[in-house]
Specification:
Elements lengths: L1 E5 L1 H6 L8 E6 L8 E7 L7 E8 L3 E8 L4 E9 L5 E7 L4 E6 L4 E7 L2 E5 L18 E9 L5 E8 L9 H4 L2 E7 L25 H17 L10 H13 L1 H17 L7 H11 L5 H15 L5 H9 L10 H34 L16 H10 L6 H16 L25 E3 L4 H4 L6 E3 L14 E2 L6 E2 L5 H5 L7 H7 L18 E2 L12
Antiparallel strand pairs: 1-2, 3-4, 4-5, 5-6, 7-8, 8-9, 9-10, 11-12, 12-13, 14-15, 16-17, 16-18
Helix pairs in contact: 3-5, 4-5, 5-6, 6-9, 7-9, 8-9, 9-11, 9-14, 10-11
The structure holds zinc ion (ZN) (2 copies).
One zinc ion (ZN) binds next to loops.
GO cellular component, one term: transcription factor TFIIIC complex
GO biological process, one term: transcription initiation at RNA polymerase III promoter
Keywords: WD repeat
């Protein structure tokens, strides 16, 4: 087995056939009688240039290698007799701390690597929700492959059925293999198992305290991974796990999420109570990077406010005072946090719109039509929004807004449409909310005209055309424009929008992302054509 090092830049640019941008780094395993069946590698984020390599063999054993890419050092950690038959798949998890192996012998095993020693640990025996009964008979003969979910909380296995034992009339034709989903969020990560006992979670008899503690530390670890911008926001396993726990012990979910807010959003110790922590996060939002705001919004909507429909959340986020009764106290607090966080992102977006327009005006070399550059649309709507929220928005936005307003009077900006029309009845649509517009209807003709409800673009706040381009699966907003790439990588609310847009020209994003959730937007299509939901 050989490891090759590739030069990606050369690979992308070269068009010549005889030019090979790869060179041999190391021949790890020389050919012998036992064939290599599978390999899996992991590049742990905690150590640069380090690579963990697992090589499965036809004999049922696998080898582990510790590779230092920059120093070209390859150390064999060891060879392990793991299975009776050929190893069919290997998967690293938890940043190279755990390894899962499966084999033709139908066994799936979990290993943890500490230093240079490997230990087998049992699979977590408890799952957060009782398994739904399926009509799949438990007659597997081998495991063909496995994969770990993006948040590392679920292990997916593909298993072969014993065709001899299947009912030949019906099952044999329909079933060849089965995909199994297995929770691994309760996976042990340390050998001493001295996981901190949970203080306030007591009433959960179905679950051993130790496994719950593993769940807690694994969920927190998993959420932390998504703070890195290069990890796409695909959170279905974290959300599914939290929702499953919420059904039986919502207290545990709140406990974990408050701990997460405390360590990632506040950074110093306060009492672990929602009344203390949520308002503290709210007032710190301008110092928090956009990615964390996106993560927060998704968790708010999909976990803490999951009983409410997205549209319902949106209308409550708009109206401040909504009472949920005594037991809805929690819902009110999390809605308030979501409202503040989305407003923070909205202000960043509006600020970009204004300052991009102003810098476009001052640099006549960059024209709005130049490809690759982001330019603002719907300035009139943005100004309207600032005017409507005059008491709440930061002063910088008001200054920018009035500056833009002065410019427009003298310069005809082509994309600037003040009055909006209903796409169904062509009545006028006044600006009342950034989310939705209601047309005036055919008032003048009959007096009781129908008013059309028109979604506004999440970015430009303009009324969307009848078939908007993009849809966010999480917040149910529509969009016909995309937000600039910079919005997603901002580290905090800028002190000066103008200098931040002038130093870095705003670029058109390479992927369509929701400005409020950071998730990949979807095209409007029938459900069966949509790709799997990221949340
Ligand atoms: Zn209308
Ligand atoms: Zn969204």
């Amino acid at each position: 087995m050989r490891i090759w090092l590739g030069n990606t830049e050369e690979l992308l640019n070269t068009s010549e056939v005889d030019c090979t941008p790869f060179f041999l780094l190391k021949e790890v395993i020389t050919a012998d009688s036992i064939p290599v069946s599978v390999l899996s590698l992991s590049m742990p984020a905690k150590s640069l240039h380090k690579m963990l390599l697992a090589v499965g063999k036809g004999s049922g054993s696998f080898e582990l290698w510790n590779c230092d890419i920059s120093g070209r050092k390859f150390d064999k950690i060891g060879s392990f007799d793991a299975h009776y038959h050929a190893v069919t798949d290997l998967a690293w998890a938890f940043d190279g701390c755990s390894l899962y192996s499966c084999s033709q012998d139908n066994f799936v095993r979990c290993w943890i690597l500490r230093g240079s020693s490997l230990h087998e640990v049992p699979f977590p025996s408890n799952t957060p929700r009782l398994r739904s009964s399926t009509d799949v008979p438990d007659i597997f003969i081998s495991c063909m492959g496995l994969a770990v979910s993006p948040g590392n909380l679920v292990l997916v296995m593909v298993r072969n059925l014993d065709l001899e034992l299947l009912d030949s009339m019906y099952q044999k034709k329909a079933q060849k293999a089965v995909v199994e989903f297995f929770w691994i969020g309760g996976q042990q990560q340390d050998l001493l198992s001295k996981a901190s006992p949970l203080v306030d979670v007591v009433e959960f008899p179905a679950f051993p305290e130790k496994e719950l503690a593993y769940w807690e530390s694994n969920i927190l670890w998993s959420l932390k991974q998504y703070e890195h911008l290069d990890k796409p926001l695909v959170l279905w396993d974290i959300i599914a796990a939290l929702l499953a726990f919420k059904q039986t012990t919502s207290k545990f979910v709140e406990h974990v999420l408050l701990k997460w807010l405390l360590s990632s959003y506040i950074g110093y110790n306060v009492d672990l109570s929602a009344e203390k922590i949520l308002p503290l996060v709210s007032i710190r939002l301008s110092k928090i990077n956009s990615r964390k705001l996106h993560l927060l919004n998704i968790i708010c909507r999909r976990v803490m406010l999951s009983e409410l429909k997205a549209d319902q959340v949106n209308s409550e986020v708009q109206n401040l005072e909504v009472s949920h009764g005594a037991e809805g106290e929690q819902v009110t607090m999390w809605t308030e946090l979501l409202r503040c966080s989305e407003r923070e992102l909205r202000e960043r977006l509006v600020g970009f719109g204004f300052s991009a327009f102003l810098s476009l005006k001052s640099h006549s070399t960059i024209t709005a039509s130049q490809p690759g550059y982001w330019y603002p649309v719907g300035l009139a709507q943005l100004e309207h929004w600032v005017a409507l929220n005059h008491e709440r928005v930061q002063d910088q936005l008001k200054v920018l807004s009035s500056e833009v307003g002065r410019h427009e009077k003298r310069l005809e900006y082509s994309e600037h449409e003040v009055a909006e029309e209903c796409s169904y009845c062509s009545a006028s649509v006044p600006f009342e909310s950034p989310e939705v517009g209601f047309c005036r209807g055919a008032e003048s003709d009959s007096g009781t005209g129908q008013s059309h409800r028109l979604p506004r673009c999440a970015v430009s706040m303009q009324v969307c055309p009848t078939t908007p381009l993009w849809f966010c699966i999480c917040c149910n907003r529509w969009g016909s424009r995309l937000a600039p790439e910079t919005l997603f990588s901002m580290s905090e609310y800028p002190l000066d929008f103008k200098s931040s847009t002038e130093s870095s020209v705003l670029e058109v994003p390479s992927k369509p992302l929701c400005p409020f959730c950071g998730l990949l937007l979807q095209r409007r299509q029938p459900d069966f054509l949509l790709s799997a939901s990221p949340v």
